[in-house]
Amino acid sequence: MNGRQVPNVASTPAENLENMDLGNGWTVASRITRKKRSTGGHFSIGYKVVGAQGKEAFMKALDFSAASQSQDPIRELQKLTEAYNYERDLLTKCKNRRLNRVMVPIIDGTIHVPGYGIYSPVSYLIFELAKGDIRDVLSDFSKFDLVWCLKSLHNVAVGLHQLHSSGIAHQDLKPSNVLFTNTNESKLADLGRATAQDHPSPIHHYQVPGDLGYAPIDLSYTPTTVDGFEKRFLADLYLMGSLFFFHFTGVAAVHALRMKIQGVPLSNTSFLADLPYLQHAYEETLVDLRRGVEPLAGALVEPIIQIVRQLCEPDPKRRGDPRWKDSIVPSYNMETYISRLDLLCKKAELLL
After folding, report:
1. How much of the chain is in helix, strand and coil states, percent to nearest 5?
2. Domain 132-350 belongs to what architecture?
3. Residue 201: which of 79, 83, 76, 42 has the closest Cα?
4. Is 188 helix (H, G, I), strand (E, B) or coil?
5. Which residues make up the CATH 3.30.200.20 domain(s) of the chain?
6. Based on the number of CB atoms within 10 Å of its own CB, is 242 exposed (0-12), middle (13-18) or buried (19 or more)?
7. Which end of the chain is more exposed for a tag (fewer CB within 10 A), N or C?
8. Are the C-beta atoms of residues 274 and 267 closer than 8 Å to each other?
9. Spatial separation of the C-alpha atoms in residues 20 and 200, rounded to whole Å
10. Is 326 left (phi over 0), alpha (psi -120 to 50) or beta?
11. Every domain range in the chain assigned CATH 1.10.510.10
């Protein structure tokens, strides 16, 4: 398609970008098919694009055509546009601050696809082309790679620290949002559910902004033991701890917890009333996690479990390194976990 061809009216403008010249040195090559297990991305289409000297990259093309099915299409289109602009601005902030463990765009822009009226403009973001997310890497292992897993978790901890230091809460940290690059590094991706302290997102009022399949259970209650923006940073800590569960056992921390509270008479309305049950169930999940980690990590099992215990604590007020409680250091500070993971990586390399 060269921009003069008649579009496929049964599809959307974002689905008709193959072979288009974006006018900025990049050409759309081919559409990337979504994997069955993919989560998120319901308002975007992925493409492989080619730039100067044949450099390949990934393009996220925003698809706002679903707004046409709304009772108020113009208002819905405005909401989708505001969400995109907010994410783009956050990514620009990350790029300007040189957050090297966050996937930031190479360039962004808009391409006009004739024949679709108000939906003809398609906004896009172009990123470096990753090898895949951490699910792809782990599924390719013929043998568990402890060093790779710990380095991946270290990269994530650094990325989360970079975001928090910039006043940004990710809010949707999960396996599909941790990408593995061609330089063998893990980077945080997809700030579509993120929010900033100095400029709240359009979904700032959502009780559970991210994926329910990974979000800490305390977000389902109002109130809990913390409030304000700190609650969002502490939710990120939980999601970081959940990645330990995923790397070593293939399941999310909240899934492991929910399996333990099946049949337990929770109120589901009073966090303080349910907290003792949640903490008891949590201890049981740690026992199971230890059984899964020990054969893979050997002598390193104890420090790994200690990190997870602190990150995934059901009570957000107690979450994080206990040394920071009642101090000027925020309880969501990630520096201690970065240091501990760095040490674990070095110890794991010595075990090879």
Report:
1. 45, 15, 40
2. Orthogonal Bundle (1.10)
3. 83
4. strand
5. 13-128
6. buried
7. C
8. yes
9. 35
10. left
11. 132-350
List the pLDDT tens digit at each of the 352 positions of the chain.
344 444 444 589 999 999 999 999 999 999 998 766 555 556 899 999 999 889 999 999 999 888 888 899 899 999 999 999 999 999 999 999 999 999 999 999 999 999 888 888 999 999 999 999 999 988 888 889 999 999 999 999 999 999 999 999 999 999 999 999 998 899 999 999 999 999 999 999 999 999 999 999 999 999 999 999 999 999 999 999 999 999 999 999 999 999 999 999 999 999 999 999 999 999 999 999 999 999 999 999 999 999 999 999 999 999 999 988 888 888 899 999 999 999 999 999 998 7
Tell me the pTM.
Answer: 0.92
CATH ID of 13-128, from 3.40.980.10, 3.30.200.20, 3.30.300.30, 3.40.50.1000: 3.30.200.20
Question: What does the alpha-carbon distance between residue 79 and residue 115 come to, in Å, rounded to a whole number?
Answer: 23
Q: Any idea of the CA torsion for 324, 330, 335, 340, to the nearest 10 degrees? A: 30
Exposed / middle / buried, residue 86 (Cβ in 10 Å: 0-12, 13-18, 19+): buried
Cβ atoms of 345 and 154 closer than 8 Å:
yes
Q: Is the peptide bond before 223 cis (omega within 30 degrees of 0)?
A: yes
Q: Which residues fall within 8 angstroms of residue 184, CB to CB, at 6 or more apart?
A: none
The distance of Cα 111 from the centroid of its chain, to the nearest Å, equals 27
Closest CA to 103 of 113, 94, 111: 94
